[in-house]
Design goal:
The complex is a heterodimer of chains A (259) and B (412). By secondary structure, chain A is α/β, with parallel strands linked by helices. Chain A has 2 domains: 90 residues, 2-Layer Sandwich (Nucleotidyltransferase, domain 5); 146 residues, ATPase, nucleotide binding domain (Nucleotidyltransferase, domain 5). In chain A, helix 3 packs parallel to helix 5 and helix 6 crosses helix 7. Chain A starts with a strand and ends with a helix. With 412 residues, chain B is of the alpha/beta class. Chain B has a domain of 149 residues: Rossmann fold (3-Layer(aba) Sandwich), CATH 3.40.50. In chain B, 53% of the residues lie in helices and 11% in strands. The model of chain B has no long low-confidence stretch (mean pLDDT 94). At the A-B interface, helix 2 and strand 8 of A face helix 16, strand 10 and helix 17 of B.
Chain lengths: 259, 412
Amino acid sequence: MITAGIDIGSTTTKAVVLKDGDSFSYALQPTGIDIGSVSRQVLTQACEKAGLKFEDPDRIVATGYGRISIPFATTTITEITCNAYGVHHLFPNASLVVDIGGQDSKVIKIDKNGRVIQFAMNDKCAAGTGKFLEVAAQTLGVPVSEIGDISQQSKNKVPISSTCTVFAQTEIVSLIARQTNKEDIAAGLHESIVSRVFGLISSVNPDPKAEVVLTGGVAKNAAIVQLLERMLGRKIYVPEDPQIVTALGAALLARQWED
Amino acid sequence: MAEEYKLVRRLEGQKRLAGMIMAHYGSALEIEKTKSKPIAWVSAGTPAEILWAMDFCVQFPEAYAATCGARHIAHTHVEITEQRGYEHHLCTYCRNSLGATMAQQEGLSEFSELARPDFLLVSNGSCILVTKWWEHLSQLWNIPLFNIDCPLVIPAYDTKHLVDHVKRQCLDLITFLEEFTGKKFDYDRLQEIVANGKRSSDYYIAMLQANKHDPVPATFFDIMGHNFPNLALRYLPETAEHYRLMTEELNQRIADKIVPMSNIKYRIYWDGIPYWFAIRELSEKLESLGLCLVTSGYFDLFSFDCLDPARPLDSVAEGVATMILNHNVSYKAKITENIFRDYNLEGGIFAYAQSCKPFSITMRYIAEHVQKTLDVPVTIIEGDLVDETFYDGERNNMKLQALAETLAARKG
C-alpha cells in the first residue's frame, strides 16, 4: 500500500510518501498563500522521488493548519496526533515531544504505542515559536539559519525581557542603538524562546526520566537544542529532518485509516 | 448513535425562557420610566434576596454582558470603553458594562439598555476586580454602593465565622436600605422569597441532573441559558415552575429516546464561562467530532442550594459566604473531580478566558488534577467571555479535534 502525509504548516508545507509503511521519500516547500497548489506540488515532488506519480498514493492524510483546505486528502488528522505517531516511529522509547514550528510550539506526552496522553500549546501569541526567531533575525540583519550559530559565539548574553514578538523587536532595535553585540542579543533571544517552551513542558508534568524528542523547523537550531538540554538536564533527541516528522506520522496513520 | 434515537435539537422550554428574559428586562425599563420601584445593579454572589424583600427591581450587569456577547453587540460597548482609554485586557464584562453605561448616559445606545440604577451592590466573593468595576459604576452614576466582603473559604478555618461575618454585613445592608427607601425591612417577605428561591433551586438542580443519563437529553449549551431565571428571578414562584417543567421535559426526552445532537461519541465536561459569541460555531464543531458537552462546574454558580426558609437570613449569608468561586483551588478541583465521576465523563474542555484571570487562573491546576486523578484527557482552549478578538477559532478547533482523536485512540 502507498500512503502519503501532507503537513501544511504556517511557514512550510511538507509531504511524505510511504511504501508499505517502510521506505519513504519526502519534499518540502514554503507554504505561501496558495495552499492548494503548493500542497499538490509538494506531494508530486515527494511521489517523484519515490518513482511514483501524484495519483499513486492509496490514502492521503492532511494535517497542520491548512489541513481542511486539501481537496485530495482522504481525511484530516491534527498535527498533535500525527506528530506523536511520527516521533514514535523514529524513536520508539520517546515519551515526550517538543515541537517548535513557525507559529506554534507544542508539548505532547505520548504512551508506549505513540498515542497522545496529554498535550499543551502556546497561546495565540507567537512568543516561543519560529516566527519569534525569524522576526528577531530580520531585525538583527542576519539569516535565520545562522542566528543559532551566532548566539553560540556570545560572551556576555543580554536578557531580552519581552516575550511578545513585536515588543522584542523594539527591544532589539534599542539594544542595537546602544551598540550591543548581535551575538549577545541573539543569545538572549534564544534563552527567551527556550524559557517559554520550558514553561509549556512543565505544564504537562513530564516524567523526569522521559526520553525527549525535539521536532519542527526550530529543532534545526543547535543553540536551541543545547539550551533546552541544559534546562531539562538531559539529552534531547532530534530526528535527521525534524521538519517532516508530522507529515511522516500522517502517512503512517493513513495506513490505519478504514475506508 | 444507535438508530432507535430520535434527534430533536430544540427544547420546548426555550420559548418560555425567552419570554421570561424579555419580561425581566422590559419590566425593569418600565419601572425606570414610572419610578415605581428603586432599581439596583448587583454582582453575582450578592444577597439579592434582601433587595427583593425590599421590593427592589434587581438587574445583573454580568448577565447583561453575556446577553450582549451572545447577540454579538458587546464589541460596540467594548469599543466605546477602549476609545476612552480603558485597557484592552480589562475584564470584558466590565468593558461591556462601562461602555453600555457611557452610551446610555450620552444617548449613544444602539441596543436595549439595562434600566438605570439607583443603588449598587457588589461582593468580592466571585471576583476581586468586580468591586472596582462597581466602584466605577458608582462614580459614573453618582449613586450609593454597598460592598459585601467575603474572605476566601479556607478549610482550616471555621466556616461559621465567615458566615457570621457576611451576616453582620447583611444586617448593615438592611439598615442602610431601610434608610435609603424609608421602609421597614419585612422579614416575613424575606422568608417567602427564600422559600421561592429554595423551590426554584431544587428544581434547577433536578433539571441539571437529568443529564446523568446516557445519552443526555440536552447538551450543556442547550441548558446553560436556563441559569438566568435562577440567578435573576428565583424570588418568583413561577421560576420554580419553569424548572419543574424543564425537568419534566428532559425526563420525557429520555423516556422517548430523544437526543440533542446527531453524533454523540464522548461525554465531555466544560469548565469556565462560555464564550458567548462562539456558541453556534463551537456546537457545530463539537457535534462533528462527537464530543457531547454533558455538564459544567459553571452551573454551581447558579445553584443557590444553601437557601433555607427555616433560617432565611442565615442561609442567604451562608450562600454568599461559601459560593463556589470563593473556595480555594483544591476544593474546586475536588468538586470538579466529583462532577466527572457523577456524570461519567470521559474528557474535559477547559475554556480559558483571556480577560477573566480570577476565573481562569486556577484552571490549569484543576484540569491537571482531573487528568491525573481520573486518567481522562483534557484540553485547554482559549478565548474570552464576550471579546471576540481574543478568540482563535482555528487553533481551538485543532485542540478539540486532538481531544477527539485522543479519546478515539483510547477506545482503540
